[in-house]
Amino acid sequence: MESKKSFFKRTPLPPPPLEFDQPWRPVTWNDEREKDLMLEKVKKFQLRIAHISQLRILLDGPVGAGKSSFINSISNALRGCNTAAALASSSGLSFTLKYKTHRFKKDLPGSYYPFVFNDIMGMETGSIQGVHSDDIIRILKGHIKEGYTFNPVSSITKEKDKEYYNISPSLNDKVHCLVSVIPANSISLISEDVIKKLQTVRDKARDLGIPQVIVMSMVDKACTIVQGDLTKVYHSKKIKEKMQECSNRLGVPMNYIFPVQNYYEQITNNINMDILLLMAITDIITFANDYVEDQAYTE
Ligand SMILES: Nc1nc2c(ncn2[C@@H]2O[C@H](COP(=O)(O)OP(=O)(O)OP(=O)(O)O)[C@@H](O)[C@H]2O)c(=O)[nH]1
Ligand SMILES: [Mg+2]
């Protein structure tokens, strides 16, 4: 008969479970009514002050992180159909080269949501060169005008790029919320140089009092459980680990990190993708609105 000792020696411990028993953030999934309520809240969203025409949200992050796809995804979630707000990449090259403002159409012809997204070139990965942190800081302060083409070799100058340099920006031109888009599947591979660049920009945003958020994209690529079922996003230990890594590497608290799956190949809306996207946009515009109100009364 097998002794107790040899039995314990040969039986390996079961692997730790990959999921939490309970989700660590509450979300009502697969519920059209709940999604419609979230959408209605964004549709009814109003600026807290009349000094500005819209809230400006800037997206930064590594090349290919999903910045442009996030803009498209928000547009899809708001419109309920496939839209083409920003051009996303289909290759590994830095795709967005120009500084561009994206507005989101409302149902009524000619009407738009009172917030815009600014899309910029990504920060370098490997040999692909990217945007200068000095340029991003100038954008935060409202100095760079729409249409400027980023130059990875040198940042914008007042003298050389007169046409695209705004010498005296108003609150309307400034950024009201900084959103860093970080890919969940490759956060560990982001170089120290890029992390330093992101931190330099975040430090400046902090000094200016601008609220900061992380959108953690590509959750489907980071966790097979989530790839099969997005409603597992707050059950997945892997996703929480990745969010904690984002929090540690960038110094952003967990409650400012939003995991999403962007639209990248789907042509019809998915209710659960929309729910995560609407959760992110609701908080982003609320933070931006509060910031603008504070600024308006201290200017
Ligand atoms: N699986 C998956 N793919 C995604 C997701 N988000 C974006 N992608 C894909 O990732 C690639 C890069 O996305 P982009 O939106 O162009 O990234 P970007 O940050 O704008 O890139 P640059 O403009 O080059 O800095 C595209 O092929 C997208 O289809 C996601 O959540 N899941
Ligand atoms: Mg892009």
Q: How would you describe this structure to a colleague?
A:
This protein has 299 residues and is α/β, with parallel strands linked by helices. The protein has a single domain (39-44, 54-298), classed as Rossmann fold (3-Layer(aba) Sandwich), CATH 3.40.50. It is 36% helix and 12% strand. It is built from nine helices and six strands. It has a six-stranded mixed sheet, sandwiched between helices. Strand 4, helix 5 and strand 5 (212-217) form a beta-alpha-beta unit. Helix 3 (67-79) packs across helix 9 (271-298). It starts with a helix and ends with a helix. Magnesium ion binds at residues 67-68, 95-96, 119.
Primary descriptors:
single chain; 299 residues; alpha/beta; Rossmann fold; 6-stranded mixed beta sheet; 9 helices; 6 strands; 12% strand; globular; binds guanosine-5'-triphosphate; binds magnesium ion
Task: Please give the CATH class.
Answer: Alpha Beta
- In round numbers, the mean pLDDT is 91
> Which descriptor suits the 3D outline?
globular
How many structural domains in the coordinates?
1
Which topology does CATH recognise?
Answer: Rossmann fold
Biggest sheet architecture: 6 strands, mixed
Our measurement of the CA-to-CA distance between the termini, rounded to an integer number of angstroms, reads 84 Å
Side by side, the strands of the main sheet go 2-3-1-4-5-6
Strand content of the residues, in percent?
A: 5-15%
Number of helices: 9
Low-confidence segments, ≥5 residues, pLDDT <50? none
According to CATH, the homologous superfamily is P-loop containing nucleotide triphosphate hydrolases
